[in-house]
Specification:
about 350 residues; alpha+beta; Alpha-Beta Plaits; four-stranded antiparallel beta sheet; globular; binds 4-diphosphocytidyl-2-C-methyl-D-erythritol; binds adenosine-5'-triphosphate
Length: about 350
């Protein structure tokens, strides 16, 4: 029976790029946040004398070959499980390609989890994370979900307390941005100007950590009630606390230079002069290396108003929500009954 897996997306609540490492990757520090917006990856697998993988998608730009992240992940997982199987993967692509939402990376994790369910075999947690990091720097975050800090080249993760589900608008411009090209452009701009050292990354990691520390708790209480109160207060105040830290995405500098209209989209997400201050975005910025941009809002009504502003500029805009870790795992598998219900309704 094929397994249907929701392949969620991510945004970056800030990102700093560090120096190029000997392996050619850049050190970075970022805060990943998963979103409810998703592709659907369907996997069917049966044990066979030799491994045979096939892949289809509704989107012509999704590679139907061993170049696909989902294909690569399945092949690598089978080798580690020491299992040979015939595997069919279908990717229903709803998310943008080269959008900076980690869509291809998430497809790899969804395919792995679907494969494990189909075969009744599971890799260990650390094994999964190792394989994921080999597929791409953004892949491991989808084995955690929720809010997590990414270090090293993005694949080393520190899970963070969750933000409450927050209304989000994704603006999806028609241009795509190639991640390696954006990194190269960053290098070109900064080679002759300032030293982009590892200390900038360490500084940001401290800033992130401090946003998760409740203010005014000099005298710590050992009681559980006190701890619960702190986590409640934190959950409500986390996003404003993060925003107060002045988080930014380094990629904006290079990507806005290459694609100036993205600046106007950012302004539409933030809110214009006519937008009352309390209805403007809590924060808005480019996600990853773009080209998608996001805005986070206090209410769904504010998000819908922002969607209209972006649509008014002729850019695709989708209202969604941030997805805490519990919901990420709780809603990942689209159960068979749910699909049957949908089919009856259709
Ligand atoms: C920009 C982000 O989306 C932020 O979340 C990620 O850093 C990109 O992650 P990703 O798409 O999984 O990237 P990978 O597939 O690992 O790398 C693609 C290419 O981007 C460049 N790259 C990527 C990550 C990194 N920390 N430094 C880099 O220089 C390298 O040229 C690499 O060959
Ligand atoms: N499963 C996949 N879905 C979409 N593109 C894929 C997939 N596997 C490989 N690719 C290739 O990877 C490239 C970038 O894919 P993707 O859509 O994940 O970019 P992205 O959203 O910018 O990712 P990231 O946020 O990780 O930088 C595409 O140009 C495509 O050729």
């Amino acid at each position: 029976m094929p397994v249907h897996v929701r392949s969620f997306s991510k945004i970056n609540l800030g990102l700093r790029i560090g120096p190029t490492r000997p392996d050619g990757f850049h050190g970075l520090c970022t805060l990943y946040q998963t979103l409810a917006l998703h592709d659907v990856v369907t996997v069917s697998a049966t044990r066979a004398a030799e491994t045979k993988i096939s892949l289809e998608s509704n989107h012509p730009a999704v590679p139907a070959s061993a170049k696909n992240t989902a294909w690569r992940m399945v092949l690598s997982a089978l080798e580690h499980m020491k299992v040979t199987a015939e595997v069919k993967i279908h990717i229903q692509k709803n998310l943008p390609i080269q959008g900076g939402m980690g869509a291809g990376s998430a497809n790899a994790v969804a395919a792995l989890l679907g494969l494990e369910r189909e075969l009744g075999e599971a890799l260990s947690g650390p094994e999964r994370l190792t394989l994921a990091g080999e597929i791409g720097s953004d892949v491991p975050l989808f084995l955690l979900g929720g809010t997590s800090m990414g270090l090293s080249r993005g694949e080393v993760l520190v899970p963070y307390p969750d933000l409450p589900p927050t209304p989000c608008v994704m603006a999806v411009p028609s241009v795509g941005v190639s991640t390696p090209v954006a990194f190269r452009e960053w290098d070109r701009l900064h080679a002759l100007t300032e030293a982009t050292g590892f200390d900038r990354l360490e500084e940001l990691s401290r800033v992130y950590a401090s946003a998760f520390t409740p203010a005014g708790t000099g005298s710590s209480g050992a009681s559980g009630v006190f701890a619960d109160k702190i986590s409640e207060d934190l959950a409500g105040n986390l996003l404003p606390a993060l925003v107060r830290t002045g988080i930014e995405n380094d990629f904006q500098e290079v990507v806005f230079q290459q694609h100036p209209p993205l600046r106007d989209i950012l302004h539409a997400l933030q809110g214009t002069e006519e937008t009352p201050v309390e209805n403007r975005a809590v924060t808005a910025m480019l996600s990853g290396s773009g080209s998608s941009l996001f805005g986070l809002y206090r209410t769904e009504a504010d998000a819908m108003a922002a969607q209209q502003r972006v649509l008014g500029q002729g850019t695709r805009a989708i209202v969604t929500s941030t997805l805490p870790r519990s919901l990420y795992w709780g809603t990942m598998f689209e159960e068979v009954e749910e699909r049957a219900e949908k089919a009856v309704r259709a």
